[in-house]
Amino acid sequence: MKETDWRFRVAHREAWIGLGLALFNFIWWFAFAYGLGSRPVEEYTYIFGLPDWFFYSCVVGFWVMVVLVTVVVKFFFVDVPFDEEQEESR
Amino acid sequence: MNYSVLIPMIVFLIIIFFIGYWSSRKLAGSSNFISDYFLGGRELGGFVLAMTMVATYGSASSFLGGPGTAYTMGFGWVLLAMTQVVTGYFVLMILGKKYAIMARRYNAVTMIDFLKARYNSTAVVLLSALSIIIFLFSAMAAQWIGGARLIESLTGLSYQSALFLFAISVLVYVTIGGFRAVALTDAVQGAVMLIGTLILLVAVIISGGGISNIMQDLINENPNLVTPYGAEGNLSAAYVSSFWILVGVGVVGLPQIAVRAMSYKNARSMHRALIIGTIVTGFIMLNMHLIGVFARPILPGIEVGDKVIPLIALETLPPWVAGIVLAAPMAAIMSTVDSLLLLVSSSIVKDVYLNYVKPDASLKTIKRMSFGVTGILGVIVFLLALDPPDLLIFLNLFAFGGLEAAFIWPIVLGLYWKWGNKYGAIASMATGILSYIALHFYNIENGNLFGVHTVTLPVVLSLLAFIAFSLLIKRQAYDYNAILYRNEKQA
């Protein structure tokens, strides 16, 4: 029996990271949208003209995800070969 | 007819044709026709990969229907649309490297190839091919109708002529160019969508007198427009959140998206695509839907949601700029249609014909079949879209949710769960599709069950079915290296 392909361990870890990011994304999005957005409209404040709940949930949330994805990809994702021949010659 | 709007769009079409022609010349010198025609020879770089995913996914609904609904519903709908940011990274991270490695190991060119090799079951292949052909065919026809309507409203041509124009343009470059043409034109189309969105947003904000001004107008009209709950206050948190499944994470199960995750050149392209894809998806979704809301005080009283974007572009921009900007929804529709067309024809030629009808077909026959089937499919869609039958519209309603419920677990658990087997896959697909259709009717009659979108429960049920049947019938751990041993023995 062969050892588990080392590339699979990399792939599995990265899939879990994807799941984690999605979960974090959801919580951020949900908490700001419904946490701030449930107040009466008169109490809303406006940032760059946009309602605060929307600004934090969707605008800031989007850029937070862009930064997180970039950081995760640059520092935690591993470059692996996809073809078998390259793996054999390792 | 408004020529200054039309000319930029025609220039755009000419560029698209040129790319199709260029790809066809590259295809002529190809040594591996199937992989090249249906997968672009697995050599997509990061930028093209990201753009082709965004362009394929961003369909008529992101550019016409979605902003139109935002116009009616207000900020609640923009919030809902932002659930799509997750698709920008999630699909590539989940399918990611394992899918790319396994696809190469199996020598898979379509999603069905992958399922066939993983589950080793005729029933899985035929069930998948059937779902793809039926659902995607309907989804495709709906997009053609959208494309024709857009041309119709811009040019004043009759619906039939508009549809004809649209059909010819799509068919020519898909038929001759294959996947590479589709992916490359997607890249151009993605760029057009990005620029078009930005220009239109700025124009709308300026003609609305600034964001604060627009916001005040919206509050004066109906304060609910700026809450997360929609104009009528009927968007519940549970309903909006359930869109995370339909348009966010569930997209992993869409065959036209999954096939792109086997087309990248190497890990570095995939990494770049992750970052670019997240930025582009989020940017387009956020801004297109904001445009929809902002358009409300500028052009009140638009009845048909699909017309909001064309009308607001013509209102706020000089005609020739409007032409460039409106090439964006056009691009979105075309790039969705071309991928679907290619996917349906690959299901017919590769998954059914080559697997079961004539496995030893010569290269020449395969080539002729691929061009022929793609062309014939196009003609059939054209004829159906001329006067859409009720059945088509009905099937289209199921297309995305149904495909997600059917495929998400056989793909994802097939990759990551060694206990998954063909019984689980068949049970999961059947449960997904049937419960989706059943629930659809239930929800029409009684309102949404548990207040969530129809796709939510079938996804959960098909997961349970997958796990239960895999463990109960012929439970056996799958060896992901099995194919490798077989190849070594042969060598």
TrEMBL record, chain A:
Transmembrane spans: 15-34, 54-77
Name by which UniProt lists this protein: Sodium:pantothenate symporter
UniProt superkingdom: Bacteria
Transmembrane helix is among the record's keywords: yes
Natural source organism: Planococcus rifietoensis
Keywords on record: Membrane, Transmembrane, Transmembrane helix
InterPro entries according to UniProt: DUF997
One Pfam family from the record: DUF997
UniProtKB/TrEMBL annotation, chain B:
Record flagged with keyword Transmembrane helix: yes
Stated family: Belongs to the sodium:solute symporter (SSF) (TC 2.A.21) family.
GO terms, molecular function: pantothenate transmembrane transporter activity; sodium ion transmembrane transporter activity
Highest taxon of the lineage: Bacteria
Membrane-crossing segments per the record: 6-23, 44-64, 70-95, 124-145, 157-179, 191-215, 235-254, 274-299, 319-344, 365-386, 392-416, 423-444, 450-473
Subcellular location: Membrane
UniProt GO cellular component terms: plasma membrane
Topology term for the membrane: Multi-pass membrane protein
Protein name listed in UniProt: Sodium/pantothenate symporter
GO BP annotation list: sodium ion export across plasma membrane
Keywords annotated in UniProt: Cell membrane, Membrane, Transmembrane, Transmembrane helix, Transport
Organism: Planococcus rifietoensis
CDD domains: SLC5sbd_PanF (cd10327)
InterPro entries: Na/Glc_symporter_sf, Na/pantothenate_symporter, Na/solute_symporter, Na/solute_symporter_CS, Sodium:Solute_Symporter
